[in-house]
User: Which sequence fits this backbone?
């Protein structure tokens, strides 16, 4: 049974006060809070079996390595990859995309080839591709979105050509909250022999994700957006594709043997895990996913849908508000402005009421520029938030508006 009161007690931070008011945490798209059992798992590693993985023969090292590889299995099952060899631990979404931009570029991109990114992407899914295109003398093309925040997929037939190597698209976008039509994009891309990278940073925690059935070629996400610590993330790639890519970084653990004449790389996935990895973070990511499985992803999805339906009906009714991102298909994100009020001022006053939101350009300048703005306020919720908190947000926006309009 999904009991919201019990769920909330699983997250110790939700009990704290900010400026004497109960915290209302609505900045989940930036990072999520951590359940007590994830925090306890980190303590367990350091108190019981901390030892560098894949190296020594000690009992500690064997336990730690076992926990690390078990976490890989949990991730593999969570996204329904075929094999743990397809699951590479990275430090986050950004690192995973940079890894791919280097390795994919080296293997598959030649001068004059094309990469497509969407206008609504986070900078992490734009800039690595710009860098790669500069290095390889390739062309970066952009799939635009309409004023609701839906991708103009009708342009794909023209945009994808025989020179296109890859299309990079978010599962859900971080400013507008749009859930992108991945089935259609994968189908159109694959018909033309184009590979697909899906950025799951805003999708994995809210949407059913099955990389095999969805036929994604590459999929990336960050642990900290799914109730795990910072500094850990995943690059999923189809085995036959990862096999073909050269390593990104060199160092320990990614080699079978090194000599000045010939260095032999490790098999997948270690080929892409140079140096001491964030094994504590990986183990904690496994724990976070186990917690979600214990709560039940279907329960989480249906609770979030109900909350999102409520919030997306309620927030637009605040006087003077404009919502940016009005697609039919959204995750729990409302980016908004109140006429005549600067986003940063609104964010500061809400904070004084104990309500944490995000303000600014949200690492998505092209999205903000689309609407000719300098920034927005973003409220983003998840399965530990409540309708009462959404009500408090709406009251808070109204109160803040009155205060700011008096000045
Ligand atoms: N992609 C999207 C859609 C995001 O929302 C974010 C973070 O907000 C990222 C990529 C980058 O994630 P990280 O900073 O964890 O690497």
Assistant:
């Amino acid at each position: 049974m999904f009991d919201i009161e019990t769920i909330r007690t699983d997250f110790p931070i939700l009990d704290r006060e900010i400026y004497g008011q109960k915290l209302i945490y609505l900045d989940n798209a930036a990072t999520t809070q951590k359940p007590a059992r994830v925090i306890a798992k980190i303590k367990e590693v350091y108190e019981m079996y901390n030892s560098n993985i894949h190296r020594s023969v000690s009992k500690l090292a064997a336990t730690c390595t076992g926990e690390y590889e078990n976490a890989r299995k949990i991730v593999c099952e969570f996204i329904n990859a075929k094999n743990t060899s397809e699951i590479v631990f990275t430090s986050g979404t950004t690192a995973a995309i940079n890894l791919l931009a280097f390795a994919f570029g080296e293997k598959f991109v030649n001068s004059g080839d094309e990469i497509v990114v969407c206008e609504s992407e986070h900078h992490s899914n734009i800039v690595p591709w710009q860098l790669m295109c500069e290095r390889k003398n390739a062309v970066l093309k952009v799939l635009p979105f309409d004023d609701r925040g839906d991708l103009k997929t009708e342009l794909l037939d023209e945009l994808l050509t025989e020179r296109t190597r890859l299309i990079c698209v978010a599962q859900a976008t971080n400013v507008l909250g749009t859930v992108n039509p991945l089935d259609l994009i994968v189908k159109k891309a694959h018909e033309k022999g184009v590979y697909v990278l899906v950025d799951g940073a805003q999708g994995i925690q809210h949407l059913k994700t099955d990389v095999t059935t969805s036929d994604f070629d590459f999929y990336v996400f960050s642990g900290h957006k799914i109730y795990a610590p910072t500094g850990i993330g995943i690059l999923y790639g189809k085995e036959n594709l990862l096999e073909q890519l050269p390593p990104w970084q060199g160092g320990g653990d990614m080699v079978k043997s090194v000599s000045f004449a010939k260095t032999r790389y490790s098999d997948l996935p270690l080929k892409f895990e140079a140096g001491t990895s964030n094994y504590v973070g990986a183990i904690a990511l496994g724990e976070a996913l186990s917690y979600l499985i214990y709560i039940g992803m279907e329960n989480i999805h249906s609770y979030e849908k109900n909350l999102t339906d409520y919030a997306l009906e309620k927030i637009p009714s605040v006087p003077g508000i404009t919502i940016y991102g009005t697609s039919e298909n959204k995750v729990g994100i409302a980016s908004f402005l109140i006429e005549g009020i600067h986003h940063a001022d609104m964010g500061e006053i809400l904070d004084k009421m104990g309500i944490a939101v995000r303000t600014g350009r949200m690492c998505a300048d092209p999205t903000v520029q689309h609407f000719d703005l300098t920034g927005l306020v973003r409220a983003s919720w998840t399965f530990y938030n409540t309708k009462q908190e959404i009500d408090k947000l709406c009251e808070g926006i109204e109160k803040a508006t009155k205060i700011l309009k008096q000045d």
Q: What stands out?
A: The mean pLDDT is 97. The first helix runs from residue 4 to 9.
